[in-house]
Specification:
mainly alpha; two-stranded antiparallel ribbon; 2 helices; 2 strands
Length: 99
């Protein structure tokens, strides 16, 4: 196989990959829109009925709450919490780490 053939094949496959990725993202976004509408309707129904879950023959739908927190200055926060003057660069990404 000639070098020019390899370059041509590479470009062809690269472009096809880009096209497929774009198609996937477009279709996925359309599905996400429908899922969001269904989720909103479920939550509205739960709220009006005073429910937080519903078991059906297809599965259980439930509402959940997730709380998160962030800090503007992680180094100062960790110094206050631990009393140490060390720099913690990756502590927020390691949930199992105990300081």
């Amino acid at each position: 196989m000639k070098l020019s053939d390899l370059v041509a094949k590479y470009i062809e496959l690269r472009d096809k990959k880009y096209e497929l990725k774009h198609q996937y993202e477009f279709k996925s976004a359309q599905i996400d829109e429908v899922l969001d509408k269904i989720e909103a309707k479920l939550l509205e129904t739960f709220d009006s009925a005073g429910m937080d879950s519903c078991k059906t023959e297809f599965g259980t739908a439930y509402a959940s709450t997730r709380s998160t927190a962030s800090v503007a200055d992680p180094e100062t926060f960790m110094t206050i919490v631990t009393g140490k003057q060390e720099i913690y660069r990756d502590w927020e990404t390691d949930r199992k780490r105990v300081v």
